[in-house]
């Protein structure tokens, strides 16, 4: 490297910091002439030698960007083991072992193993599926290097092997492998949509540029440099020769990746689970000591009271919560994969359902991500076939590489036959496009010994060479100031409507015996304009309406210009009356921007950090925010959102940053995902509310029994077996269905609502537990130490069956079994667990844990108790819904 380059590098690094993009380097590379650029980079036109390549690679590293690494299986297993509930169970299991309660230790160990392994298996499978999704394509670049014989040759090498100073050849379809400065170009158009969101490609050419500015002495984005191409962008058409200026983490793309890789903000799902977890742990820490103290004083056996308190703590611990959550999420991921949606991070499914704001990029999401010829009009704005025909002749006969606009014109293949191009028009000459004239001309031979001179290009430049304008088909008038004003106003109107406008002009002239040149571009007749647009998708408008009907507001955050954005948004049914631009929000405080973001639908000309900031401010205000984008410029926003959504054709960094990847870029797919997310959340809430209310009721029952009974209402091992069976009964919940009413609105975590539900619904089971106590005490004479096993057996069965029945009572806000029936797996598994619970006291297992057979008259009482329990629960449920307007 030259001394000048090293000096600039150190100054830029000192000014910008190691992790920021070297803007001064890029600006300098854009402004110097070609010879100075070769000198700065310490390279030659013949390319680098292998020794120079190795030296630079050793000093500056490979041309690779930072990226997330897949979590190893043992780290994944460890993360499942450090779950708060699992840790609590492990502690209780160790305590049980130390106190000699082997049976309790075995039951706790089974709970831990089942919970951890099932969750680990689900997450590991999901991780493997996500890894398979990642692209394994090894992109290559064409470079000129000198071989061992010092002969300059073209070579195809992987992107990662590029170094600063390499000479890179670009052609249509190539991805730009690093940040490069053009030294030669021909008709080179680069799509920068992944960086800027601009739907139209930009022209790049190898001329020395001035320092980027807006004409007022203020610098603007480096992305506006006309001779710099950036890593990750694509060559749409043309060819170019360029020198590599920056690689890897020093590129614009690389600096962005480095700043966001490894950073992931807590989502609404994470916060919700944490809040619920610590709510339940606080409940356990309060209630268990109370039960211990009451039993210790009442029974005068502190050792027995301690063992019973441990069993209650295990019973209160929702150890299956991590597994039930993961199983629900994994099942949701499988269902979504059938709808062309791949879930990379399982937690994102619930966020999908909770989402009430969807922020989306414009290009390719609301639009088709392809340029079409929208209109062909005369200067008065009326449709003109002459304009289309002349534009077609120009695009068809030019010999240079066709850009996107030419291709859009040539899609009108019917004109090839209507104009009889092969018979009536023969190519004579052309005047190629250049960036000073901003137009190109073709000359074709027409019948009657005349040549047709057709010119197409920027409106201002075409107007300068026109002396007349077509006012009607086949009729023209002198180009007066009035007609010129009409043409300019029509151009402005089309621009304001979001169209890119190209003017078309022509003239006829006799053949000449010399090549045509720029001096022949005079005296033309302005025929009219062709306008181009990246049109909205047909599915965009109905999809937005569908999302809004499900309580999801759609906001557009794009890097494209406000004019195009406004038009597209209007066409898909979004309110674009106020479009806020990135430059106007820079000076706003977080409070001001947050207020603005709440009420604004459309933002344009945003840079990546502005998108991320808006999303974070929306989240701070209690919203669950999703973001849909596929470009490099979307990566930060994807990370900041509660659920980041990309597509399989998106930039690698966008796919890596996303939680969900769609195989089809359609908002309609999102609607299906949102409904599935709400179903998943509903099934998770079923488990949480069933478990918390049931556990709370059990605690109340234990407290009452501990005060009045001369013996324990159940032995510790009874509580553990009952809890284990109850947990197994709920393993089928991921296969349950949700009522349609539940999926109509976004659903969010509400720890306060869970606590309220627990307080109102939990005591219902205690009422019937106490009735069971009275029945066992008075009717079955289980009122002494010698008959405590009968008492414990009676409550064991009633407690298990009431807990299992609550699954059906709580899973729906409707009348269970009549207006809403659980899915078959739920019916089968709960029924099986109830049958097993009834059989245990009559089995050798029951005998081994001190349970005894019950008289058949007990079951008559049991049916009446359980039926009354269901009726009272339904009555309280109806009151609760009327009072609070929500059930799950």
Condensed summary:
By secondary structure, the protein is of the alpha/beta class.
Draw up the topology in text:
Elements: H1 3-16, H2 23-31, H3 34-41, E1 48-49, H4 50-60, H5 73-81, H6 84-98, H7 102-133, E2 140-146, E3 152-158, E4 167-171, E5 179-191, H8 193-196, E6 202-204, E7 228-229, E8 234-246, H9 252-260, H10 268-299, H11 302-316, H12 321-337, E9 341-343, H13 348-354, E10 357-360, E11 372-377, H14 385-397, H15 404-410, H16 414-418, H17 421-424, E12 426-434, E13 439-446, E14 450-457, H18 459-464, E15 466-472, E16 475-478, H19 481-496, E17 500-509, E18 524-533, H20 540-549, E19 553-557, H21 562-571, E20 579-581, H22 582-585, H23 590-599, E21 602-604, H24 608-620, E22 625-628, H25 635-640, E23 643-647, H26 652-657, E24 660-662, H27 667-708, H28 716-729, H29 751-779, H30 788-810, H31 824-839, H32 844-848, H33 857-884
Parallel strand pairs: 1-2, 10-19, 10-22, 15-18, 19-21, 20-21, 22-23, 23-24
Antiparallel strand pairs: 2-3, 2-4, 4-8, 5-6, 5-7, 5-8, 9-24, 11-18, 12-13, 13-14, 14-17, 15-16, 17-18
Helix pairs in contact: 5-7, 6-7, 6-11, 7-12, 7-28, 10-11, 10-27, 11-28, 12-27, 13-27, 14-15, 20-27, 27-29, 27-30, 28-30, 28-31, 29-30, 29-33, 30-31, 30-33
Features:
single chain; 888 residues; alpha/beta; Calcium-transporting ATPase, cytoplasmic transduction domain A; Calcium-transporting ATPase, transmembrane domain; Rossmann fold; 4 domains; 8-stranded mixed beta sheet; elongated
CATH topology of the largest domain: Calcium-transporting ATPase, transmembrane domain
Which CATH class of the largest domain?
Mainly Alpha
Sheet with the most strands?
A: 8 strands, mixed
Please report the total strand number as a whole number: 24
Q: Could you name the ranges where pLDDT drops below 50 across 5 or more consecutive residues?
A: 1-5, 14-21, 133-137, 212-220
Radius of gyration: 36 Å
Please name the CATH architecture of the largest domain.
Up-down Bundle
Strand content: 15-25%
Give the terminus-to-terminus CA distance.
Answer: 66 Å
Structural class: alpha/beta
Q: Helical stretch count?
A: 33
**Please, what is the CATH homologous superfamily of the largest domain?**
Calcium-transporting ATPase, transmembrane domain
Instruction: Tally the structural domains.
Output: 4
Estimate percent helicity: 40-55%
Name the shape in a single word. elongated
Overall mean pLDDT stands at 81
